[in-house]
Design brief:
about 280 residues, Chitinase A, domain 3, eight-stranded antiparallel sheet
């Protein structure tokens, strides 16, 4: 008995026209399911879900993900752009900013006026004090030589040339000092020649330039604007070792050596005494 097998491949597929008339989206879905069926026949797991646009190789972006540096840079640019668009002025004074925010710009301007008046008042006060110091100074002629004896038995002597009318120096206060210094009669320091006085904190250590304990003691009883000639023994000066004058930032040409056991003589002028800025 012969069985005749019908070739079904030649039969017309009734659903084919309907499938051909479907939109392209449905055709793609149908093609995807057919490929999945073929893959399952080869031993692979069938795929029941179409690939999402995020995982599709055709839709994935080829650009690398931005780094943290790029993100921060972009945020900084955005912040700078926002700040540049602001027109509101900001004062560096906290009190002025507070008054401006709380009571308006008029209150802030009023506070600025108060600060300005205070600064001008301080300047006027300084000018008045300087004028009073200058008027209170007194030139002396043939003043007596005064010898100061210390509790440890050491002594130094001085002769006033001009009595100052300003303040006495205090520890950690700023002093501006002009002087000529001699060791055994030989000049080793002259601030007048270089036109650069010594500016230092009174009582600070180590001593600046050619200063020493004897000079500090002589300055303790001088007022700003005064001038004095001081004679200092070696024990209150540089002792047996002497000293070496080395160049500094302000005096690059400073050079010389002070012999040991030298008797020192200073012509001092205390130009200014003031409280150091905080």
């Amino acid at each position: 008995m012969k069985l005749h097998c019908m070739n079904t491949s030649r039969l017309p597929f009734k659903g084919r026209p309907a499938l051909q008339s479907l939109p392209s989206k449905h055709n793609s879905l149908f093609s995807f399911r057919r490929r999945s069926t073929q893959q399952s026949g080869n031993g692979e797991q069938p795929t029941t879900q179409p690939p999402s646009p995020e995982t599709s190789p055709q839709l994935s972006s080829s650009q690398p993900e931005p780094s943290i540096k790029d993100i921060l840079k972009s945020a900084h640019k955005q912040q700078s752009k926002q700040q540049s668009q602001r027109v509101q002025p900001q004062s560096t004074d906290a009190v002025t900013s507070f008054f401006t925010r709380r009571f308006g710009i008029k209150a802030g301007l009023a506070w600025v006026a108060v600060l300005t008046a205070g600064v001008l008042g301080e300047q006027i006060k300084t000018r008045i004090e300087q004028a009073e110091e200058e008027s209170a100074t007194q030139d002396l002629v043939n003043a007596p030589v005064i010898t100061q004896k210390l509790p440890n038995g050491l002594e130094y002597s001085y002769q006033d040339v001009k009595l100052g009318g300003g303040q006495l120096p205090r520890k950690s206060w700023l002093i501006v000092l002009h002087y000529k210094a001699y060791a055994n009669g030989e000049l080793f320091e002259d601030t007048y020649e270089r036109n650069k006085p010594i500016v230092t904190l009174y009582g600070s250590r180590p001593f600046t330039g050619g200063l020493n304990k004897g000079v500090e003691l002589a300055l303790s009883t001088m007022k700003a604007g005064g001038q004095r000639v001081v004679t200092i023994p070696p024990e209150l000066g540089f002792g047996e070792k002497g000293a070496v004058l080395r160049p500094t930032l302000h005096v690059p040409g400073k050079d010389g050596r002070i012999p040991g056991n030298s008797t020192l003589k200073y012509e001092l002028e205390l130009v200014r005494v003031s409280i150091p800025p905080s």
